[in-house]
Every structure is written in structure tokens, then in C-alpha cells.
What we know:
The protein has seven helices and 16 strands.
Amino acid sequence: MTGNVSDFILYDELFHTSASEQIAQRVDAFNGALTNAVQSGGQQRIAGIQLSSRALIGESERHTMYKRIPNLIQERDPYSNAPVADSKLEHLEHVGIKMNRRIGPIKGTYDQFRKIGQTSETFSIVIGRQAGDDIFQDYLNTALTAGVAALRNTTTAGSNIASDTANKLNYKHLNDGRRTMGDSLATALLVMNSGAYFDLIDNNNGVAGDRLYDVSDVSIREGIPATGGSPVLVTDSPALTDGTNNFVLGLVGGGISVTESEGRIIKSEDVFLEENLGMRIQGEGAFNLDIMGFAWDLAAGGTNPNAAAAGLATNWVQYATSEKHVHGYLIEAQG
Length: 335
């Protein structure tokens, strides 16, 4: 009689439960800490990065909005019968892109765990917990990579970038960043790496904000005078440096959205015909990435982009009619 995988006790659920709980805890802590961080004057503002879960089909998500009509209100001459030109109402299209991900495969042996007095269930639980942390980090790093890249492709080149790579991050840099947004003053979140954060503290007489929460090597700190009261997300993401200079991302409320758009599938199997009995786990899932004021260019960037494509400025096209209506601004300072 030939046996198959259905004859064995597998541990998909242990992995899935561990990973799901870990991700849920990370996302809840992240969203909760940011929500608390952006409370101001008794009113709650939306955090700069939103993590959520919603089933989305296809390789991208599109929706339309109405374009603001320029010069809608004009002077009128009551003594004239001269003809006037019509204006028209137009649509703008937002395009968010789906990014597919694989977990593993990861292979181990039953003997590994017997030797340390553990059962094979440990394999599923340990890998599941690590996957939970790594999935969260992938969400964040991809979002920041794209958020930085898009600001290098605004309609008016460089309009939302404040650059001073001759000096370490200081209060003036943050003010210069806000200045690029004109009278759109609401910065919901500043995102920077630890080097930039401690440079800012050095230039603020050592006054740091209280730590609100740590999650998956990400620290969320309250606003301080040097940040203009804006909360700070401190994460050593590769998106926030080029190896020489540090980048600070100033985000408006809801500036970047990451949506887990396909439920994770986790499968495991026993491995035979080798010296030691083995076990293997593999999974997959997907998330959608949306950046306020920008559409993913499907013609240029295609579907299912990798990290390099997500970080290519020309793959993000500004549809917002004003740079004040995009997801934020970028500050470049000495690393």
C-alpha cells in the first residue's frame, strides 16, 4: 500500500497560528502605538503608515477620484457679454500594486529536536514566530523604500526634498522639510534611522522623546520640541540611508498603506528517502502597497515588482495635482 501526506500528523496549524499571532501582535502594537503617538489636543490624527488586512483580487488595485478644477471661482464682469471657456470635470486614477511573497521552504529533521529534548512541533512554532517578525519587517521596509523613491519623482522635481548633506540632522532640517509642504503643515509621523535620531538628539542638548513602544526592532517615540511635536518611528531600514547620507521621511496621515491582501497559505510535509527523517515547511502570501498621491506605473514597473523595482522612482507617477497632496517629504542629511 502506498502512503501519502494525508496519512501523517502535520503541523501546518502550529506554524500558521504562531506566525499569525506574531504578525497580529506586531501590527496591533504598531498601529496602536502610532495612534497614541499622533493624538494631539484631544483629537486623534491618522498615523502616517497604516497596516491592515483586506482581501484584494488581481495584481493591482485601482480606484478613481475627481480632479480638482483649477480656477473654479473667477471674477465676473456684469457689463460684458463676452464668451467664456468651459472647464471640465476629470478623473484621477490611483494604482496600488500587489507584491507576492514566499516563506521558505525550511527543512529540518526529527533528530535535531530529539537531541535537544524537544518534539517536532517546536520546528513549526519557532519558524512561525520568526516568520511573523520577518513579515512585519518586510511590510515596513518595502513601504519605506517605495515612499522614499516616489518623492524623487514629483511633478516638480525635488519640490518635496530638503537636502543638506554637509551637516548632521538637526532641527533646521526638519523645519526645511516641512517648508516644502507649504501651508499643509500636518506631519503625522517622522521616520528615521537610529543614527539620524541620535544626531538630532545631539543637536537638541541631549533631550530625547520617551519610548512609547518597541516592536520587531522598531522603536516608536513621542514627539519632542526638536521634532516639532511629531512622533518618531526609529528603524534601521536600508531604505533610510545610501551608505553615506541619512534620509528622514516626513509622512502625512495615511500617507502609506500596506494591506495584507491574500491570506497566507502554509503547508508542511514529511521528507523521506534520506539518511534522517525530515520535515519541510513552505508558505506564501501577498500584500498591496499604496502611496498617497502616486500611482504605480504598470507599463514601466509591471506586476509583482521586486524590492529594486519598488525603489525605482520612475515606477511611481504623481497624479496629485499639487505636491502638497502627496504622502509627505524627504530630508537628506549627513550620515
